[in-house]
Design goal:
The chain is mostly beta strands and about 475 residues long. It has two domains: about 1-35 and about 385-475, Jelly Rolls, CATH 2.60.120; about 40-130 and about 230-335 and about 360-380, no CATH class. About 5% of the residues lie in helices and about 45% in strands. It has helices at about 270-275, 340-345, and strands spanning about 1-5, 25, 30, 35, 40-45, 55-60, 65-70, 75, 85, 100-105, 105-110, 120, 130, 140-145, 145-155, 160-165, 180-185, 190-195, 200-205, 210-215, 220-230, 240, 245-250, 250-255, 260-265, 285-290, 295-300, 305-315, 320-325, 330, 370-375, 375-380, 390, 395-410, 415-420, 435, 445-460, 465-475. Strands 1, 2, 33, 34, 35, 36, 37 and 38 form an eight-stranded antiparallel β-sheet that branches. Strands 5-32-31-30 form a four-stranded antiparallel β-sheet, with no helix packed on it. β3 and β4 form a beta hairpin. The two termini are about 20 Å apart.
């Protein structure tokens, strides 16, 4: 009899099951050892009057305001009753593109590729308005140092053009002797597909990446190519954490620190992603940071018509995946809610209807939270553990063996177990019936073959799935 402990290591779907890496890590996220449950969505807001395509949170002083964009309207979350109020400019909008938001001081600025940049001043505005009569129509907007930058202009007519405002003046867009506002055409690399800001800027094109650095008078900005013939496939895949930017290229997932570019998905998840994604709807991809779990998440439409998420742990450099009903993901924050307000103001009349535990960050004012959109409603990822599954690599003990027992190591929970055994690597992989672990954590099995892989489904209020112990009897060839 052989006893083996299979630690739940990396999920590398681009590698074969016999390589020793996990075959699947579904509805979980990576931890230092093993995986933790990824929660399901719970409704947070009321319904908007149209489906939503973006989320943004603006903070200025103690004021917190959450915005959600649709193709014809912009909505603001009412913190008193969680309704989504239409705060669009008079006449609304008409665009086939998702909103792209940024914040400059107290001003929230939005771009939708069809209308002039829109602005909202936190603390005083009651509806969005054109940022300025001379403000551009842009697909992307960001803040670099003390300037507002806009890129891919005039509804695609100037798709390789970037323009910036005057210093410390988001409403000045005309160049001149007293203004630092100006523009730049980026001559190679195709269309601008996204921008991020900070102390320096990164401008992503289809086949190039530029670093944008302030140089002072007379040119003000210096544009240096840091990547040639290599760029960003879809701007909605770009997200930033600290000084690192993460994005999807036409070959896979990468990170950029403004100087160098490094792959994070090569021979790990890149082939899996391109096999799974619906490339005809790639522009519906969205990405964000979960600041609590320290993970980057990409949400995309899969080839089966549903929505999937790829999850990357920044510090561990490990991946997992999740299924979701969320169409879009993003970041929100709340203004804080008392226990009394949950009942009297928000209308939660019982513990069962509250979308998160009472000690969740959702109810603490000003804390950034990972959230999303399901059709016309803002949702939080604060629900119950969601059908998690970990599939082990193939185990081989001699030419023929029988697995008789599995003991999942699940912190604060239990598990059900299935096994698939086969003689040859080209045989079909068919999992048997579920075996529920006993109170001692033992799941009885009886499966014969040369290669064995186990499907572990943690159950209960579990907190971490670490490993599984397997008992195997080596057998003869009869």
């Amino acid at each position: 009899m052989a006893n083996q402990r299979i630690v739940f290591g990396e999920w590398l779907p681009d590698q074969p099951g016999v390589s020793g890496t996990l075959v699947d890590a579904k509805n979980v996220y990576p931890t230092g050892v093993g995986y933790a449950p990824f929660p399901s969505v719970e409704n947070y807001s009321q319904d908007a009057s149209e489906n939503l395509n973006s989320l943004f949170v603006g903070k200025y002083g103690s004021e917190v305001q959450v915005f959600a964009g649709g193709f014809t309207k912009i909505f603001k979350l009412d913190n008193t009753d969680l309704s989504l109020d239409d705060v669009s400019k008079s006449g609304g909008y008409s665009s086939a593109f998702n909103w792209n938001f940024t914040q400059f001081g107290s001003v929230v600025i939005g771009a939708n590729n069809s209308n002039k940049l829109q602005s909202w001043t936190i603390g005083s505005s009651t509806q969005f308005a054109d940022l300025d009569a001379n403000a551009p129509v842009a697909k992307y907007v960001t803040v670099i140092r003390d300037f507002v930058f806009a890129g891919n202009l005039d509804n695609g007519t100037n798709s390789n053009k970037v323009i910036w405002s005057d210093i410390n003046s988001e409403t000045t867009w005309v160049s001149g002797s007293t203004s630092q506002s100006d523009f730049q055409f980026l001559p190679d690399g195709g269309n601008i597909t996204g921008m991020v800001g900070g102390e320096f800027g990164l401008i992503f094109l289809e086949r190039a990446i530029y670093r944008c650095t302030y140089s002072g008078s007379p040119l003000f900005w210096q544009f240096d190519t840091i990547s040639k013939e290599f760029g960003c496939l879809e701007g909605n895949s770009i997200t930033q954490y600290g000084n690192i930017t993460y994005f999807l290229s036409d070959t896979g997932f990468f990170q950029c620190d403004g100087i160098s570019i490094s792959p994070i998905g090569t021979e790990k998840v890149d082939r899996y992603f391109f096999d799974d994604v619906d490339l005809s709807d790639l522009n519906s991809i969205s990405s964000t940071v979960d600041p609590v779990k320290k993970i980057i998440v990409w949400n995309y439409k899969n080839s089966n018509g549903g929505r999937s998420m790829l999850i990357y742990n920044i510090q561990l450099q490990k991946w997992s995946r999740a299924e979701t009903t969320a169409n879009v993901i993003g970041t929100i924050a709340t203004s804080g809610t008392t226990l009394e307000a949950l009942d009297t103001t928000l209308g939660y009349t019982s513990i069962e209807t509250i979308p998160a535990s009472l000690d969740d960050r959702l109810w603490i004012g000003g804390k950034y939270l990972f959230a999303g959109v399901v059709n016309a409603k803002i949702v939080g990822f604060t629900g119950t553990n969601y059908n998690s599954e970990i599939i082990t690599p193939d185990i081989e003990v001699g030419y023929n063996s029988m697995v008789i027992l599995a003991k999942p190591q699940i912190d604060n929970g239990s598990a059900t177990v299935k096994i698939a055994s086969r003689k040859n690597l080209n045989d079909n992989i068919l999992f048997g019936s579920l075996s529920t672990a006993s109170s001692e954590g033992r799941a009885s099995l009886r499966s014969v073959g040369r290669y064995h892989r186990l499907s572990i489904n943690p159950t209960g209020s579990w907190t971490n799935a670490v490993s599984v112990d397997v008992e195997i009897n080596q057998m003869g060839l009869r």
